[in-house]
Design brief:
Two copies of one chain form a homodimer. With 409 residues, chain A is of the alpha/beta class. Chain A is built from 14 helices and 20 strands. Chain A folds into three domains: 125 residues, NAD(P)-binding Rossmann-like Domain (Rossmann fold, 3-Layer(aba) Sandwich), CATH 3.40.50.720; 161 residues, 2-Layer Sandwich (Dihydrodipicolinate Reductase, domain 2), CATH 3.30.360; 67 residues, 2-Layer Sandwich (Alpha-Beta Plaits). In chain A, β10 and β11 form a beta hairpin. In chain A, α4 runs parallel beside α5 and α7 packs across α8.
Chain lengths: 409, 409
């Protein structure tokens, strides 16, 4: 029997208890052993829960109990989640977490501590909810040199962008709809400004490249400025707009970015709709592989947590690779990033000559109305910025600018 | 140092040698140990290969060499591939294989033998080429009850169907193109008649349900009868046609089928184009997850082989679940299978009344030309057969009949 302690009994904690309970016999048959929840740590009491008698308010008895071999941290936030995780490892317990903030900020330290003690620190649920991604990166892709990752990593923004395309709703209306359905928080900034995606792509970058950047070191742009006109232009040209986190190696330097991008209909990322997530991994031998599924939600995320518990209980020695913080000089420059771009601007007098001078050959999508929409040839970030400045100097006001993704099916 | 012997130096065997050689230092860093190819068994010599001096023509020295801990079978065919795999396990060596025929026919026996000897028998490369699917099914999905699998498992047929849709080519012309590109064999029947997909979905069924059917026990239909008219009707209605292997549990009885199906554009399976494969797994807690990538090819498949070698070398104890042969009575009946259907027939006089009587309410796609195309409501197989017989009796000749997939995004 494997005894576990759950830290936090919110959405994911209660889901984990449900998965372990509902599939108890199936799990026991597969594992050849049983998993018992011995403690649930939470500030609250849950008198009506079937797990009420397991609830404690203090970490001390959990750390002191030698029967507890796995501590599962699902509290959210940095503290005391980090402190409890560290204390659990120091007390000789394996740690499983769904907490991307702790993994991004303290993963380097906690993985080192776990290795030092012969323990495991696993975090499959911290990225992509229930989608298998961390374990496949560490096992199935172990023979390969990973050269790039493109991920739709946030269900809230994907729902909003899907709704905007389906119904023609504005960003504000689609956000309000997402909030009404419980897909978006009342303060949606962590999702719509791209920070949730940024934390997740930083963790994937760490696993793929060995270097983790901070949020301050990377380019992050959310979806709040995506307009109904942008969506219509994209749709007409055979593209979807999706918030994409990218991590790639430029030589041996990682480059990590988050921004809304045009995804061609032929890409497997283009049919990822609603709250679903998809993560495309590019490598030397495997080419493109993609992992798709529910990137959030109580039971899918809990399923990933339980898979980590089973991995530990089964005695697997497989460890996520270690990483270190990226110094500024270890990251590839943003200026040299190259991709095609969508630009939309007011059709001021003389725009055609100005575009020709600033951008060279382009693919026009719409030149009929009072807005001009086009796709540029591949260009560097600094070239794009200079071209936009040139257009502005010619009296042409930019309304939208978005990058295309690189991958194609 | 881990010494391995490669059995077979064809497309996958030579790819495996290339992956192990090219990424030698990366693999050594991740594993903390090195992998050495000690023998390559093949009937042929390869005097110009850098591995020429490793080639042997007899299995005996490999079996007798205690330094060899992993034997990698990539010979294809049932014999002597099975016999050598069995002999390797009996000699105390782990076995990795890419050979779906051996896994489907002898997996039950070889997994039992491996377990008995404390060894591992791994076969990630036998399904979906380089796509991680077997290991995720056995690890990430271990907490879940898998209720269904829908897979595009054959790159050749997917290429043909993609080309038919893109260029309007006939099946014969698209096949000829695939043959010219080396995607299809000169005798393409194993691919286009569905047998390759059938073997793979049988293995996935075994992993998900614990029961493996024989090819004779399941419904298998290839793509040779898919017409340009079918493709045009599907495209116009927002569907793609794909050869899909399905395995699902009906109560506790597996039902396994292979047939061309209509896949709605909103499904993640719909953007799987060209030689790519995609496998959608449905379960109680994770909902739908999908794995996408290159389902064949030397290096992608070799990458999956090497991932299995690394898994063994790393000392993971994780085992694929065992399965047993399905008795006829243990399989769900084909007659009770329910789905929507596409039907196309000649517009003989009185067809509208006959359709109304035989099929009830339908969604017409095309009633203008000399062919009528429609989608039925969900109906059982036996009901569909009876309805088609009724139409035939009314003088209406069926030109095409295809099932829709059940999954939606």
């Amino acid at each position: 029997m494997i005894s576990v302690a759950l830290l936090g009994f919110g959405v994911i904690g209660s889901g984990t208890a449900e998965v372990l309970t509902q599939n108890k016999s199936l799990i026991a048959a597969r594992l050849g052993d049983t998993i018992e929840i011995k403690y649930i740590l939470d500030l609250r009491d849950f008198p009506d829960s079937p797990f009420a008698n397991l609830v404690v308010h203090d970490i001390a008895p959990i750390l002191a109990d030698d029967e507890v071999s796995v501590v599962v941290e699902m509290m959210g936030g940095l503290h005391p989640a980090y402190d409890f995780s560290r204390a659990a490892l120091e007390a000789g317990k394996h740690v499983v977490t769904s907490n991307k903030a702790v993994v991004a900020a303290f993963g380097e330290e906690l993985l080192a501590l776990a290795e030092e003690r012969g323990l495991r620190y696993l975090f499959e649920a911290s990225v992509g909810g229930g989608i298998p991604i961390i374990r496949p990166l560490c096992t199935d892709l172990a023979p390969c040199d990973i050269t790039g990752i493109e991920g739709i990593l946030n269900g809230t923004t994907n729902y909003i962008l899907t709704r905007m395309a389906e119904s023609g709703a504005s960003f504000a209306d689609a956000l309000a709809e997402a909030q009404a359905l419980g897909y978006a928080e009342r303060d949606p900034s962590a999702d719509v400004d791209g920070w949730d995606t940024a934390r997740k792509i930083c963790i994937l970058s760490a696993l793929a490249t060995g270097k983790i950047p901070t949020l301050e070191q990377i380019y992050v742009e959310g979806i709040t400025r995506v307009t109904t006109a942008d969506i219509a232009h994209a749709k007409q040209a055979g593209y979807a707009i999706r918030l994409i986190g990218t991590a790639e190696l430029v030589g041996d330097q990682p480059r990590v970015m988050v921004c809304p991008r045009w995804v061609h209909a032929s890409s497997p990322l283009a049919t990822i709709n609603d709250v679903f997530n998809g993560i495309l991994v590019r490598s030397d031998f495997l080419g493109d592989v993609m992992f798709y599924g529910r990137g959030a939600g109580s039971l899918p995320t809990a399923s990933a947590v339980v898979a980590d518990i089973l991995d530990i209980a089964g005695g697997s020695p497989c460890k996520p690779p270690r990483w270190t913080a990226a110094a500024d000089g270890e990251l590839a420059s943003h200026d040299s990033y190259v991709c095609r771009r969508y630009l939309c601007f007011s059709a001021a007098q003389g725009w055609r000559d100005a575009v020709c001078a600033a951008l060279g050959e382009v693919e026009y999508l719409d030149t009929e109305g009072c807005e001009v929409a086009l796709l540029t040839a591949p260009m560097r970030e600094d070239e794009a910025k200079a071209a936009i400045d040139t257009l502005a100097a010619a009296g042409i006001t930019l309304l939208s600018s978005m990058r295309l993704i690189k991958s194609t099916n």
